[in-house]
Amino acid sequence: MGTHWYAIGALILAFGTFVQSYTILFPKDPPTKPGQCPRFITHFPTGVGCNCDQDCPGDDKCCNYQCGSFCLHPVFIKAECPKPSGVGTCDEKCQEDRDCCCGRKCCSNGCGLECMIPKIVKPGHCGLWSPHECGDFCKDDAYCTGDKKCCPSFCGKFCKDPI
């Protein structure tokens, strides 16, 4: 009976060694910090030559550009609830965003709460209205590629580079 416990102890020790070796040989990717890298470098970086976000101080991110990688302050894209278009059902289908799946937010429908596709707001500003662009080419910034924003004109909305 005593040999049986030695065998079990040896198996447990071997398993523990295997698990420890596996985490050393195959480490997880370091977690990324929230936010996105800015499109252009507009201020002096807090670090040069980083490999991942953990190489950067505080909330700064490791951003890769053609001229190298730098630690920079991140920009944030906001996801806001759309404005209710009338009165929806008065059911409380969610209480908070984590009750929703697939990138949806818990928003008011005019009476109750339900999971909705958020309105995306990218950083930057539209600037002056354009008198030349007519037609509704976008609803919000999510409809525009890259860093472009959905901006109003005198006769609709269109995508343009932010200011």
From TrEMBL:
Domain spans labelled WAP: 30-75, 119-163
PROSITE patterns recorded: WAP
Cited InterPro entries: Elafin-like_sf, WAP_dom, WAP_four-disulfide_core
Membrane-spanning ranges: 6-26
Pfam families in the record: WAP (PF00095)
Keyword Transmembrane: yes
Protein name per its UniProtKB record: WAP domain-containing protein
The species this protein was found in: Characodon lateralis
